[in-house]
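Bench notes, afternoon.
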Amino acid sequence: MALDNVTKEIVASADTKVAEITVQQTAELKKIQAEADAAISEMKEKEDKKLKEAIELLKRQELSSADLESKKIVLSKKKEILAKAFETALNDLESASSEEKLKQYREMVESAKTVIDKPKAFISKNDKFTASQLKVSSVEVDTRIRAGIILQSEDGTIEVDMQYETLLQTIWDREIKTLSDILFG
């Protein structure tokens, strides 16, 4: 009988202890779960913020790349238009009438005489001007010349390049900003 009572007391005590431990564990588990939930929530908030920032950065980079690409396309088209304008201007000069070319060549010779007293002229095979027409000492055909003239001193030490392409390129290079402003605003 006494043994039964002792056993019951031990069992009751153990049950009480188990119940207390269960309550403590449950409370501890709830606490741990709450801490874990808070930590997860904080981590999720940080990750969401990082993700949002990464998306914004990516959007800005994409917009910047698209803007840069569009500027490249516009610049390329502008260069293409300028090159076409140059070729058109050069073709207009080269296709001038013989009378107009002769007048221009004489003016070129006249202006070069400040540097070369009695120049000889090199002209395109398409131009058929004589030395007397150009008022130079001699005329030679140079197949490299498309239009315009090259004037040279008799000893060959001084040369003035007045090919249309050379003159136009010089003016073009000097005035490209103005031309661009006129064409593209």
